[in-house]
Specification:
By secondary structure, the protein is an all-alpha fold. The chain contains three helices and no strands. Helix 1 packs antiparallel against helix 2. It is rod-shaped, with a radius of gyration of 27 Å. Keywords: Membrane, Transmembrane, Transmembrane helix.
Length: 109
């Protein structure tokens, strides 16, 4: 084949590669945007779990639970959220113990 015959083939090949790169770039951006949005939701939910209001803390825990069940988090992110949940549960149990002790003390008085 002469150079003139290779030119259309080479042009088509370059166009196909450019198209593939473009599609992969758009797909990667879409995945990245979804993950960023997911992480913003996690941050919001974590903030709710630290709120003074018990109702807001519960909402935060429920939202975190739902976010874990999506296809977005990595294993590491799930472990981080699980660790946070463990801390929150321990803190909640400790607060309930203090509340029970305070109620018992008040009843004794």
């Amino acid at each position: 084949m002469s150079a003139a015959e290779w030119t259309p083939l080479a042009t088509g090949l370059v166009a196909a590669v450019a198209l593939l790169v473009g599609v992969l770039t758009v797909r990667q951006k879409s995945v990245s945007d979804r993950r960023a949005q997911w992480w913003e939701r996690v941050q919001w939910a974590v903030e709710q779990t630290l709120h003074e209001s018990e109702e807001r803390r519960l909402i935060g825990v429920v939202v975190l639970t739902e976010l874990i069940d999506t296809d977005q988090p990595t294993r590491d992110e799930v472990r981080i959220i699980d660790a946070l949940a463990d801390v929150l549960l321990a803190e909640s149990a400790q607060n309930e113990d203090h509340g029970d002790q305070a109620a018992a003390t008040a009843e004794e008085s």
